[in-house]
Amino acid sequence: MIQAILVFNNHGKPRLVRFYQRFPEEIQQQIVRETFHLVLKRDDNICNFLEGGSLIGGSDYKLIYRHYATLYFVFCVDSSESELGILDLIQVFVETLDKCFENVCELDLIFHMDKVHYILQEVVMGGMVLETNMNEIVAQMEAQNRLEKSENFPMTLHLSTR
Amino acid sequence: MALKMVKGSIDRMFDKNLQDLVRGIRNHKEDEAKYISQCIDEIKQELKQDNIAVKANAVCKLTYLQMLGYDISWAAFNIIEVMSASKFTFKRIGYLAASQCFHEGTDVIMLTTNQIRKDLSSPSQYDTGVALTGLSCFVTPDLARDLANDIMTLMSHTKPYIRKKAVLIMYKVFLKYPESLRPAFPRLKEKLEDPDPGVQSAAVNVICELARRNPKNYLSLAPLFFKLMTSSTNNWVLIKIIKLFGALTPLEPRLGKKLIEPLTNLIHSTSAMSLLYECVNTVIAVLISLSSGMPNHSASIQLCVQKLRILIEDSDQNLKYLGLLAMSKILRTHPKSVQSHKDLILQCLDDKDESIRLRALDLLYGMVSKKNLMEIVKRLMTHVDKAEGTTYRDELLTKIIDICSQSNYQYITNFEWYISILVELTRLEGTRHGHLIAAQMLDVAIRVKAIRKFAVSQMSMLLDSAHLVASSTQRNGICEVLYAAAWICGEFSEHLQEPHQTLEAMLRPKVTTLPGHIQAVYVQNVVKLYASILQQQEQAAEPEAAQEVTQLMVERLPQFVQSADLEVQERASCILQLVKHVQKLQGKGVPVAEEVSALFAGELNPVAPKAQKKVPVPEGLDLDAWINEPPSDSESEDEKPKAIFHDEEQRQARHRQPEVDEEELARRREARKQEQANNPFYIKSSPSPQKRYQDAPGVEHIPVVQIDLSVPLKVPGMPMSDQYVKLEEERRHRQRLEKDKKKRRKKKEKEKDKKGKHRRHSSLPTESDEDIAPAQQVDIVTEEMPENALPSDEDDKDPNDPYRALDIDLDKPLADSEKLPIQKHRNAETPKSPEKEDVPVVEKKSKKPKKKEKKHKEKEREKEKKEEKEKKAEDLDFWLSTTPPPATAPAPIPSTEELAVNAVTAPDNTCEGLRREEAEDENDEAEQDPERKSSRHKKKKHKKEKEERTKDKKKVKKKQPEPEEEAAGPVENGAAEEEPAPPMSSYCLLAENSYIKMTYDIQASLQKDSQVTVSVILENQSSSFLKNMELNVLDSLNAKMARPEGSSVHDGVPVPFQLPPGVSNEAQFVFTIQSIIMAQKLKGTLSFIAKDADGATHEKLDFRLHFSCSSYLVTTPCYSDAFAKLLESGDLSMSSIKVDGISMSFQNLLAKICFHHHFSVVERVDSCASMYSRSIQGHHVCLLVKKGEHSVSVDGKCSDSTLLSNLLEEMKATLAQC
C-alpha cells in the first residue's frame, strides 16, 4: 500500500499532497516539512530509498523518491510494494504529467494542482496502484477532458488547460 | 480574449479562480497569511451563493488551501453540495475536495450515502469512476456496509475502467466492513482471470494485500496464482504474485519446492531488475522455509548470492542498497554463503551513501565469527573516528556493541580486548550512548569473573581521568560510563592495585558536577572502597593509615551532603554519620574493618530481565482479590493530611483494581498537588540539573576548558585495543603452533619418510572458528531465573490490528445470512433480523427427529465440515505433491496414460485442482459425494442438515473464525484433537549402495482404476556426478510398468534428470495393475553412469519394488449413515485380527492406520473407531478398530475376502511396531 504521495520543490513548498491515511492538516504539513529535510540532505547520486519513516507508520514504511529538476516526488509505501516498482511508477506518473501538460514544469503543477490530482487518481487509487500503462492513463484523461468540454460551461476554460 | 470575455460576464459572481488565487498568494509573499484569510472570507461568500459553478470554484480553491495546511472541514457540507452537482466538471471538484478532507470523524459524511449510490449507478462511466476514486479515500464502516453490494455489482461492470476501480476499492470496503469479505470473495477470485489485464492486476493487488495480513486463508489460491505466474507477462502482476508467494511459503514448504524452478527460470530470463529482485527475494524466502527440511539447495543459494553480488557491485545506488537488503535476509539462514563476500560488504562501509553504510553495518552484525571479530571491529573503530555527523557515529557505536555482545558474547575470545574497546569508545565526543557503554562494562565485569581484575584496573584509570570524560558533562551522555566505572571499582575493590588513589579520585570536588544519579553511585561505592582499604590496613597493622583514610572521608563527604540531589544528599549524610562513628571507634583503638565490610558482604548475581515475570504464582494466592476492603472515598479525603502511608496503601489498591475511574484519579492527584503546594515542608521536585550546576557554590568560578578531542587521545596508562589485538594474535599463533607441534609429532612418528610436505602445510594459517580457544577461562555467568520458572509466554498479537478482522476462513461455503445488505425501500414495519426469521423454521424441522438422531446428526455435520476442509487441503496437497512444470513451456503431453515418467504432468493437475475448487464453490453446500446419497431417506436428512448448518454458521460467524487446519494431508485424518501425531513418512527404503539411495512411495488415485504411481526419491550419496539414469523392472503378468510409446517391454525408462553430488530429486513412474487383491513384488534395476575426476563408470543397483495391498487404497471420506448402510448390506466378507502389546495412544494409532493404509475415520467413540477406505478398483473396506488395555483388535469387512485378509496382515505388521 502507498500511504502518501508528496510532491514539493527544492525549497520544500508543497505542490501536491495526497495522504491515503487520515492525518490532521498540521501533521500533514509537518510530515511534508520533515520529509523535505530528509531528502534535501541527500545527494542526487545516492540511493532513492529512505528507511525509518518515523512520521508515517513506522519501520514497515519506506520513503521512495525521485528528484526531477526543481521537484521532489516522494512516495511513502509499506513493505508490500516493490521498491524498484515504485520508482518505475514515479517515472510513469511524471511521464504522464509530461504528456498531459506537454513539457511539464513546476509552474504547471503550481497552477493546476487539481489537474495533477486527477491524473494521479488514474494512477493510484486509495493507496493502491490502479494503472501503470501510460497510454491507458492518458487516454482516460483525455476522455474526461472531452467530457468536461462537452459540458460546455465557461469554467472549462480554466479547468481544462490547453 | 475568450477568457476575458467570460470573466467579464461572471465577474460579479466571483472574482478569483484557482489560478488567480495561486498568483495572488505568490504576489503576497510577505503577508501570505493575511492574504489567505481574506481569500477564505471571499470563499465563504461564494459558498453562500446559489450558483453551483461559483460554489465549485470556491471548493476548488479550498482544496488548494488544504494543501497549504488550512483546515477546510468547515466547508464539508458545501463540498457535498458540489459532489451532487449534475455536471461531471463540478462533481469531480467536489469528490476531490472530499477525498482530501473527509474522514471517519466528518459528521456530514452520512449524508453522502445516497448521492454516492446514485453516482455509482450513473450511466456515465466517469461519474462512477470519480465516485469510486473519492470513496476509496474516505470510506467509513457505515458507507462500506451500505454500499458494499453496489460496489460488488460494479465488479462485473461492462467497462474494464469501472471494473478495475471497483475491484480495488473492495479492499477498503473489506477493511471497514469485514463481513463483506466472504460474500464478495468468489467474485474477486473470478476477477483474477478477467480478460482485461488492468482488472486482473487490480484483483491480484487486492488479494495480495489481503493475503499479506492473513496468509493462511489464501493458501488454497496457490495453484491459481501459480498458473498466473507462469502465464502472465505483466511485470507488475508478476511482482505482486511473487511477493505473495514469499508470504505463503513459510506456511507450506512444499509450495516453496514447487516454486524454486520457475523462479530460477525467471531470474535467468528476465531483464527487468525489479522483477529479478523480487524473484531473488522470494527464492530466499523459500530457502528459509525449506532450510530445515531440505539441505540440498546450495545451487539456488549460490545463484541468489551471485545475483545479489552483481546488484551490490552495480553503480546504481538503488540496486546496491536493495542487494544489501536482500543479502541480510540470506544471512539469517545461510551465513556461510554471505560471509565469503565480506570484502564487498566492508567496501560498502566506505560508501558515500549513509543508507548503504547502515545496510552494510546490519550485514556485518551477522557475519562476525570468532576469527574475524577483532578485524571487523577494528575496521568499524576507524570508521567511528572518521564519521561525520553524530547519528551515523552513534549507529556505529551501537553496532559495535551489538556485534560484540551478540548471543552472550559468543564471538569474543579476549575480554581484555573488549574492555579496552569499550574504554576507547568512551572518548567519543557527543554520543548519546554513554549508558549503553556503561551497561556493557557492568555486564562484562559482573558476568565474566576472570576479567574483573583487568576491568577494575581500567575503570580506576577512567575514574582518574574523569575530568576528560566529564569535561562537557551537560552536553553528552558519555559521563554515564563513570557510573559503571565507579560501581565496578567499588564492588570489586579487592582487585584494586591502589585503592587509596582511586578513593581520592572519587572524592574530588569536580565529582559534584556530575549528574545526580552518578554522584549517588559514587557515594555508595566510596564506602565500599573505604571498607576494603580499612580491612587491608588493619591487616597490615597500620592503624594510623586507616585513621588517615577515615579523616579524608570525613573531610570530603560533606560536599555531597550539600548536594541538591535528594538521593545523593541522603546517602552522603547517612554515610558521613557512619564514618564519624567509625572514627570514634578508631580513636579508641577498636578494630572496625570487619564490621564495615560486613555491610557489603556477599556477591551480586545477575538476574534475567524476565525473571520477575516468571515467578509462578503460589497456589492459593489470588492476586485479584482484595486484601483489605478498599477504603471509601470520603475516608481517604478526610485522612489525607495525616498519612503518607495511607497514600501508599491506596496506590497498592489501585494496582489491584485497575478499573478505578481515571477521572477520580486525576481529581485525587490534583487535590494532592494542591495540598503539597500549600505545605511549606514539602520539598518540591529538584530544579533542572543545569540550574543546579550553576547554583552550586564555587563551581561557577572554575573555568571550563574545552578540550579538543579530535586528535585521538593517548592517555598515559590507558590501553589501546590494538595492543590487545596484537597480543591476541600472538596468543592464537602460539596456540596454533602448539597444536601443530603436537600434530607434527604424531605424524612424524607415523610417517618418518615424508618430511618436506609438512613445512608448507603449517605455514598456512587455516583455522576454523572452533579451533580458537578463548584467552581467559571465560565463565560467563548466566542470568538467574527463579526456580520452576513459567514457560515463556509469547507476545500476543496486537488486538487493535485492523487487519485481524479480516482473518476469515474463505473456504467455508456461504450461508444465506451472509449476503450483503441490499438497500430496499423502507417498509413501515420494523425489519426482522435474519436470525429471528430462521429460528422457527429450524425448530419445526428439528422437532421431528428423535433426540438420539439429532445428536447423531450433529456429529455428522461436524464431520462433514471437517471433511470439506480436508478435501480442500487434499486438493492443495495433490497440486503440491506433483513436481512443477518448466515455467517457460507448459507443453501439452501426448497421451498421459501411456507416458511412463509423468514428472511433467503438473499443468493438467493444476487445472484439475482448479476445476474441482470452482465446482465446489458453485455447488456450495449441495456439494457432497453423490455416490453415497442415493436413497430418498438420506436426501431428506440432508436437507435438514443443511438448514441446521446455516443456523450453525450464523453462530459461528459471530465467534472467532475457526482455527485453521494446516494443509497437511491425510495425517490429520484420525488425529483430530489433543496430542500431536508422531512424525510419519510414507517413503521407505528401496535400495542403497555407495552411490545412490532410493526411497519410494506408492500413490493410488481414484481416477484411474488400474494405475498406481510410484514416486522414487533418488539421492546421490557419492562425490561423483550421476547421469544417464534408467530404471527398469521385470514386468509380471499382473503388474506392468508404463513405458514411453514405441519402446519394448525390456527397455528401461530414463530418469528425467541428472544428479550432482549430494543432490536428491524425485522421479515418478506409472504402473498398471490388473488384480489388486494380492500384494506383489517386482524386481528391477537402476542403471546409471557415475562420473568423477578419474573418469566414468557404469553402475547398477538392483531393487525389489513392493506393492502392498494398502497402496491400492485411496483415502476416501465416508459418512456414518452411508457406512452403516454398507455394513447392513451384507455382501461384505468379514475377517479380524488382534495385536497385543500396544503402548501407543489410540489417537496416534488411528493416525497411523490412516496414514500408512489410507483409511479415513468415519466415527470415533472413546476407544473404538470405524474407518473406511476404498480401493482403486472400487472395493469397499470397512474397519472397526477397538483398543483394549494393551491390545488392539481390528474387525474388517470388505467386498473381497482375499484383499481383506492381506490388508489385515499388513496392518498387523504396522500395529506390531506400535
Automatic annotation (TrEMBL), chain A:
Similarity remark: Belongs to the adaptor complexes small subunit family.
Q: Which GO terms of the cellular component aspect does the record hold? A: AP-3 adaptor complex; axon cytoplasm; cytoplasmic vesicle membrane; Golgi apparatus
State what protein this is by name: AP complex subunit sigma
Oligomer status and interactors: Adaptor protein complex 3 (AP-3) is a heterotetramer composed of two large adaptins (delta-type subunit AP3D1 and beta-type subunit AP3B1 or AP3B2), a medium adaptin (mu-type subunit AP3M1 or AP3M2) and a small adaptin (sigma-type subunit APS1 or AP3S2). AP-3 associates with the BLOC-1 complex. Interacts with AGAP1.
Q: Which InterPro entries match?
A: AP_complex_ssu (IPR016635), AP_mu_sigma_su (IPR022775), APS3 (IPR027155), Clathrin_sm-chain_CS (IPR000804), Longin-like_dom_sf (IPR011012)
Q: What keywords are assigned to this protein?
A: Cytoplasmic vesicle, Golgi apparatus, Membrane, Protein transport, Transport
Localization per Swiss-Prot or TrEMBL? Cytoplasmic vesicle membrane; Golgi apparatus
Membrane topology of the entry: Peripheral membrane protein
Query: What is this protein's function per UniProt?
Result: Part of the AP-3 complex, an adaptor-related complex which is not clathrin-associated. The complex is associated with the Golgi region as well as more peripheral structures. It facilitates the budding of vesicles from the Golgi membrane and may be directly involved in trafficking to lysosomes. In concert with the BLOC-1 complex, AP-3 is required to target cargos into vesicles assembled at cell bodies for delivery into neurites and nerve terminals.
Q: Which Pfam families match?
A: Clat_adaptor_s
Q: Does the keyword Membrane apply?
A: yes
Q: Where is the AP complex mu/sigma subunit domain?
A: 1-147
Where do the TM regions start and end?
none
- Superkingdom of this entry's organism? Eukaryota
Q: Name one GO biological process term.
A: intracellular protein transport
Automatic annotation (TrEMBL), chain B:
Principal subcellular localization: cytoplasm
- Sorted alphabetically, which keywords does the UniProt record give? Acetylation, Coiled coil, Cytoplasm, Golgi apparatus, Membrane, Phosphoprotein, Protein transport, Repeat, Transport
* GO biological process terms, semicolon-separated: anterograde synaptic vesicle transport; Golgi to vacuole transport; neurotransmitter receptor transport, postsynaptic endosome to lysosome; protein targeting to vacuole; synaptic vesicle budding from endosome; synaptic vesicle membrane organization
For bias kind Pro residues, which ranges apply?
883-893
Segments of skewed composition (Basic residues): 741-762, 845-858, 934-944
**Bias (Basic and acidic residues):** 648-675, 725-740, 799-844, 859-875
Tell me which positions the record assigns to the signal sequence: none
Single GO cellular component annotation?
AP-3 adaptor complex
Which Pfam families does the entry mention? Answer: Adaptin_N, AP3D1, Mu_AP3
InterPro entries linked to this entry = AP3_complex_dsu, AP3D_dom_metazoa, ARM-like, ARM-type_fold, Clathrin/coatomer_adapt-like_N, Mu_AP3
Mode of membrane association: Peripheral membrane protein
Record's subcellular location: Cytoplasm; Golgi apparatus membrane
Subunit comment for this entry? Adaptor protein complex 3 (AP-3) is a heterotetramer.
Its biological purpose: Part of the AP-3 complex, an adaptor-related complex which is not clathrin-associated. The complex is associated with the Golgi region as well as more peripheral structures. It facilitates the budding of vesicles from the Golgi membrane and may be directly involved in trafficking to lysosomes. Involved in process of CD8+ T-cell and NK cell degranulation. In concert with the BLOC-1 complex, AP-3 is required to target cargos into vesicles assembled at cell bodies for delivery into neurites and nerve terminals.
User: Which PANTHER family does the entry mention?
Assistant: AP-3 COMPLEX SUBUNIT DELTA-1 (PTHR22781:SF12), DELTA ADAPTIN-RELATED (PTHR22781)
Name of the molecule in the record: AP-3 complex subunit delta
Q: In the UniProt record, what gene is named as encoding this protein? A: Ap3d1
